[in-house]
Amino acid sequence: MTRLRGGAVVAVVMVFAVAGCKDLQDNGASGAQGTAGGGAALAAADSLTVKGRAPKTGYSREKFGSAWADTDSNSCDTRDDILKRDLKGVKYTDGDCKVSYGVLEPDPYSGKEVTYRRGRSLVDIDHLVALSDAWQKGAKYWDAGKRIALANDPLNLLAVDASANRGKGDGDTATWLPPDTSYRCTYVAAQVAVKKKYGLWVTAAEKTAMKKVLTTCPGQKLPSGGNPTKAPSRFKAR
């Protein structure tokens, strides 16, 4: 498994959706695919709608469907798809789907090496745009299919150090950034891409924070790819 440095790959068909989000592992702006002329991430951040944060009332994880649904119909759940994409030295249990071992080398949030072992993992799959944050910025008004799609979209998912992820919680760019400063441009660009793709709004403080980060990397382009914004109708949410 080779981790690409700088480069979003647009998924052509659904079966390649996970591979189409390698850019989430990148540091910096060089080599990323996006709008010609550079600066696509900063321009996209500037275009996001600004509103106040809505109440969290009514939010639950179940509103986004069962965890790690196989929405791309490749017979592997979403969690294993992301582990396969993001870990090196991957080993499996029962075929080539259930990941039993791998290494984050490095973890994008902390910059350190983290080993994944199934059942006693130090690795989480992070929703770059947290589901509760999405709920308060538009997702509460969506139908279930769109919420399920967001929860399982490889564009919005990243294997990361568990302790760093739990420190993030449901924070947005205004309240949390990766400790590894070299990853911040890539991280913020990915959040912008998800919010733009799904039509989520941002708070004024969040937009200011996004632009502050992205002005330090004016050539940062916008990642793309991932799954469709509506899950197949067989998937349900409460």
SSE diagram, text form:
Elements: H1 40-47, H2 78-86, E1 88-93, E2 98-104, E3 114-117, E4 123-127, H3 131-135, H4 144-151, E5 157-161, H5 162-168, H6 184-198, H7 204-214
Antiparallel strand pairs: 1-2, 2-3, 4-5
Characterization of this structure:
By secondary structure, the protein is an alpha+beta fold. Helix content is 26%, strand content 11%. The strands form two sheets. Strands 1-2-3 form a three-stranded antiparallel beta sheet, covered by helices on one side. A two-stranded antiparallel sheet has the order 4-5. The chain is globular and about 45 Å long. It starts with 39 loop residues before the first helix and ends in a 24-residue tail after the last helix. Residues 1-20 and 27-38 have low confidence and may be disordered.
What's the short story on this structure?
Helix content is 26%, strand content 11%. By secondary structure, the protein is α+β, with helices and mostly antiparallel strands.
